[in-house]
Amino acid sequence: MSSLLTASDLTHEDKVVWLEDPEELDYVRQALDKTPRRRGRPRYHRDGRMIGFTELGETAEADPDSGLQKRRVFYLLPHDRDAEPGGLYREGAPGEAVDPRTIEPRQVGRKTERSQRGLSAPTVA
Length: 125
Description:
By secondary structure, the chain is mainly β. The chain contains one helix and five strands.
């Protein structure tokens, strides 16, 4: 599914679960995936690694066509800044990347100076 999210995509989120400490990362990629369950760790089918995911509240209804739940997944690919600090994203970040410190349930994450320019940049609240 699209990684360009709106608040209306996230209305049933209840909790963000981190598998890695988000304070250590300049950015994470976020995407909206369809999963069979509201809670628990979803399956992960990308290169790289899952950093976190959201869990949905009890009132979240499944997609009528697929029967699946729409949940956010946070991840990094092998060529992202954390693994290759001097690589492609030494400065700048992928379009779907946001600062993990800005991620909360029901709110789309935001880009910050740190997510766009790296650890040496100050964090903008």
